[in-house]
Amino acid sequence: MADPRFFSSSGPQRLADIAAVAGAQFEGDGERRFTGVASLQSAGPDDVSFLDNRRYAPLLAETRAGAVVLAKAFAGQVPSGAVALVTAQPYLGFARVAALLHPPVQPRPGIHPSAVVAPDALVGEGTEIGPCVVIGAGARIGAGCILHPHVTVGPGVEIGEGCRLHANSSVSHAILGRGVVLHPGARIGQEGFGFAPTPDGRFETMPQLGRVLLGDFVEVGANSCVDRGSQGDTILGPGTRLDNLVQIGHNVQTGRGCVVVGQAGIAGSTTLGDYVTLAAQAGVAGHITLGTQVRVGAQAGVMHDVPPKLDVIGSPSMPVREFWRAMARWRKLGTERDG
Predict the structure, then answer these.
(1) Catalytic-role residue among 150, 166, 173, 250
(2) pTM of the prediction?
């Protein structure tokens, strides 16, 4: 159950309203009230829970939840006293129920006395500027944003409405769309890793003269870094999600809805199509293209272009079926040598 010290509550909510946001059908009293969400194991009669994985079906018979969001195939297994909220997408439906009962914190408009805001910076209506925030000259902050403590916004940065910048995140040389979320310690717009070697063995920095453009509803995880472009821009398409500890090199461009999981990295000037997924610790070389809906497995090393809708794994990466055939042969070879 959500700890009230950390999470707000809008409950109690009517069953009819809960079913509506979940896109679910139900039988019973639509006026019945619920106060929160919880797992099947911990839920009580005033909680809504969910089932989205067959392996957890045995827990359904023992749950004390008052309502369960689930697929039609499991509706008959809901215990007496619980309401089956039947939907084709239980996990999505439950996410929307959780957001209804425990909505995100809303901004408390105002600028904390310890914040430093440049005289020519513009702060939109209804925005909250927290303690020790620094906003540079000419920056523009949209309406309804929250800038948590110790956020730094560089000169000229533009931030769209409804954005949330968590503690100690920083933004420079960037333009952010609507609803962008930067988690604690995220770094946006710092200098990319570009340099030229000199004849005497030193390195001279190549000026990084581009920007970072974050589309609407992009989220950047804690301590992740998105370098600004060298000559052009680094671009993350609308809805793209970066997990914690992700590195995006200069001039990388992603399409819509890409997902990059923890400790993955993309080298400079690489392009991702729409809805590409990189699993944890995957690495992508520079100056290549990954097509739409490509999926890259955990710890894979991608060193060449990948056509659309292909799943790859391994280092160097290869199509999944080829990888497992190669692994089978490798294991067989090892067994033969042992024999």
Answers:
(1) 250
(2) 0.93
**Strand pairing of 187-188 and 225-226?**
parallel
Q: Give the CATH number for residue 25.
A: 3.40.1390.10
Does the structure show a pLDDT above 80 at 127?
Answer: yes
Q: Could you give the CA distance from residue 116 to residue 110 in angstroms, rounded to a whole number?
A: 13
Q: Are the C-beta atoms of 222 and 185 separated by less than 8 Å?
A: yes
Cα–Cα distances in angstroms (integers) from residue 46 to residues 11, 83, 87, 242, in the given order: 10, 11, 20, 35
- Bridge partners (DSSP) of residue 90 are none
Beta-carbon contacts of residue 36 (< 8 Å; ≥ 6 apart): 1, 2, 9, 11, 46, 47, 48, 101, 102
Question: 3-state DSSP helix/strand/coil percent for the chain, to nearest 5?
Answer: 15, 25, 60
Where residue 337 falls among pLDDT bands split at 50, 70, 90? Answer: low
Determine phi and psi for 112, rounding to 5 degrees: -65, 145
User: Into how many domains does the chain fold?
Assistant: 2
250 among known catalytic residues: yes
Dihedral sign of CA atoms 79, 80, 83, 84 in order = positive
pLDDT band of residue 338 (cuts 50, 70, 90) is: low
The one-character DSSP state at 336 is H
Give the pair of three-digit tokens for residue 327. 């692994």
Domain that holds residue 269: 186-209+237-339
Q: Quick one: pLDDT at residue 290?
A: 98
Pair (64, 201) in one structural domain: no
Residues 305 and 203 in one domain: yes
Asked whether residue 339 carries a pLDDT value surpassing 60, the answer given is: no
Question: Is the Cβ–Cβ distance between 313 and 320 less than 8 Å?
Answer: yes
Q: Which two tokens stand for residue 321?
A: 């079926």
Residue 62 has pLDDT above 80, yes or no: yes
Does the structure show a pLDDT above 80 at 334? no
DSSP annotation of 330: H
